[in-house]
Amino acid sequence: MNKIALIIQREYLTRVKKTSFILMTLFGPILMAGLMLIPIWLGLKDKDIQIIEVIDDTRQFINQFEGTNTIQFYYEFKSIDDAKKSFYKDKYTSILHISNTDKNTTAYLYYKKQPGLSTVSKIESTIEKGIKNIELEKQFNISRKQLDEIQPKVTVKSVSIDEAGLEESKNVGVSTFLGFGGAILIYTFIFMYGIQIMRGVIEEKTSRIVEIIISSVKPFQLMMGKIIGIALVGLTQFSLWIILSMGIYSVGMGVLASSNMNQLDFSKEAITNGMSSESENEISENKIEQQINEMFSQIPITKIVIAFLFYFLGGYLLYGAFLAAIGSAVDSEADTQQFMMPITIPLIFSFIMASSVMENPDGPLAFWLSIIPLTSPIIMMVRIPFGVETWELLLSMALLVLGFLGATWMAAKIYRTGILMYGKKITYKELLKWLFYKG
Question: Strands 50-56 and 94-98: what pairing?
Answer without folding.
Answer: parallel
